[in-house]
Amino acid sequence: MADQGKVDPMHQFEVQKMFDMFHVGNHEVAFTTSALWMVIAGLLLWVFMIGGMKRQLVPGRWQVAVEGFTGFISSMMNANIGPEGRKYTPYVFSLFMFILMLNVLGLMPFGLFGLHPFTVTSHFAITGVLAILSFAIVLIVGFWRHGFHFFSLFVPHGTPIWLMWLIPVIELVSFLVRPFSLALRLFVAMTAGHVLMKVFASFIIDGIAAGPAIGIGVGLPSMALMIGISGLELLVAGIQAYVFALLTSLYLNDAINLH
Amino acid sequence: MDVQAASLIGAGLAAIGAGMAAIGVGNVFGSFLESALRNPAAADGQQGRLFIGFAAAELLGLLSFLIAILLYLKAA
């Protein structure tokens, strides 16, 4: 923990227990701030989707927004997988909307009496589980459809015989790194962005604390930069959610269509 | 040199990788924009690949940031 007067940029990622729930063996399962924000994201998504399902022939604004998101993911799945992708669109859509909502909820600008927004996806445990979920679906779909022929994924077309000792090993390693890279990408993007914003905010606070001259000289440019960086963080939140969904659809295409 | 000082110096050196990632990401978007201005009609179809390329370049830069953060938090 930071001592008085020092800004701690890592405090925003601290997970606090809210109340105990039940035992599993030796471990306590508690309801934490992470779980709270996931419930908030789920409720907001539920309200958003319900509001857009009125099925008017001439859609109102809310329905247009919901259909914008569903059409976006649906066309992405169609472009990457083809007509077989329709089965997996609900999963990829849920994944995309959940990650997007969690990312954006972490950017909300309030910080009163110790209450602050918590970015659920800034923990490797959360993004790791999402990545493992995607990877498990890819593996199950691949082996269910193709059986052991799935391993032909690691031998690209036109591989000469004298490279057969090297290429499948490289392909296998690159395949196994996929869930790790999915999780790491989202986690580090969120953590780095939020640490950056806290550091710039600390410049403003420390500048004001050092007197009016330094306060204006350092605080005003930092404030302008903060506004720009907050906009960039919104963009990164959207892009990282899209990239997670896009790569999941590409890995599903590898499993479904092999090559 | 004690371990803490070495960790902090290592963290600073690892952060150089983040600057190199900036060059990489700029390369991806720059090539896309350059070719999109030559053939605007075909540009929209390639947007998906643009973001895949961006994600890959950014991931490697974020890996070096991760090493820097690990060393920094171990030292401080």
From TrEMBL, chain B:
Domain (V-ATPase proteolipid subunit C-like) ranges: 9-71
Marked site positions, Reversibly protonated during proton transport: E58
Keyword set includes Cytoplasm: no
GO molecular function, one term: lipid binding
Pfam families xrefs: ATP-synt_C (PF00137)
Source domain of life: Bacteria
GO CC field: plasma membrane; proton-transporting ATP synthase complex; proton-transporting two-sector ATPase complex, proton-transporting domain
Bilayer topology term: Multi-pass membrane protein
Primary location group: membrane
Keyword field: ATP synthesis, Cell membrane, CF(0), Hydrogen ion transport, Ion transport, Lipid-binding, Membrane, Transmembrane, Transmembrane helix, Transport
Compartment(s): Cell membrane; Membrane
Transmembrane domains' residue ranges: 6-29, 50-73
Keyword Lipid metabolism found: no
Protein task: F(1)F(0) ATP synthase produces ATP from ADP in the presence of a proton or sodium gradient. F-type ATPases consist of two structural domains, F(1) containing the extramembraneous catalytic core and F(0) containing the membrane proton channel, linked together by a central stalk and a peripheral stalk. During catalysis, ATP synthesis in the catalytic domain of F(1) is coupled via a rotary mechanism of the central stalk subunits to proton translocation. Key component of the F(0) channel; it plays a direct role in translocation across the membrane. A homomeric c-ring of between 10-14 subunits forms the central stalk rotor element with the F(1) delta and epsilon subunits.
Similarity remark: Belongs to the ATPase C chain family.
HAMAP family: ATP_synth_c_bact
Protein name: ATP synthase subunit c
Gene encoding the protein: atpE
